Amino acid sequence: MKKQAHILTTDAEIEAAIAQANLLEEYRPKAASVEYRENFDTIAVTLASGVELVIPRRLLQGLEHATAAQLKDVQIVGAQSGLHWRQLNVDHYVPGLIEGIFGNKRWMSEIGKRGGATRSAAKTAAVRQNGRKGGRPPKKRTAA
Fold it and tell me: What is the pLDDT of residues 98-138, one digit of tens each?
């Protein structure tokens, strides 16, 4: 039978952790309001600090096919750190949104692929200029 380790936490350690959390509380990003702006197709989150975060709806996992009525039915949850769309059963974490995390790993990878496939005049010009210099250098191969 495998012996399990017991971790003992003292009252002093717990009190210190609570005190540290209380010190950092005023700096934690908190959502004060959230709304769907249909005319721009964006989700706007106003933080308690007054900063406004505006994200295109199509970037947020779970919201890409939602109707305007579903998008408007959003509430702030979890000590002002989460957004919840009840009709869609979709949640997003406010600190994650601030960091540019709009979904799980697979979702973020797909967003990156779409961005990389975007064509623009600037991107086309850069590719042509690189081509004039001989193109992309070959990858160096290492001996196995």
Answer: 999 999 999 998 888 776 666 778 777 777 787 788 777 77
Distance, CA of 126 to CA of 122 (rounded, Å): 6
Q: Is the pTM of this model over 0.85?
A: no
Q: Could you tell me which residues are beta bridge partners of residue 115?
A: none
Q: For the chain, what is the HEC assignment?
A: CCCCCCCCCCHHHHHHHHHHHHHHHCCCCCEEEEEEECCCCEEEEEECCCCEEEEEHHHCCCCCCCCHHHHHCEEEECCCCEEEECCCCEEEEHHHHHCCCCCCHHHHHHHHHHHHHCCCHHHHHHHHHHHHCCCCCCCCCCCC
- Give the separation between CA 19 and CA 25, rounded to whole angstroms: 10
Q: Encoding tokens for residue 103?
A: 């979904």
Judge contact between 75 and 25, C-beta under 8 A: no
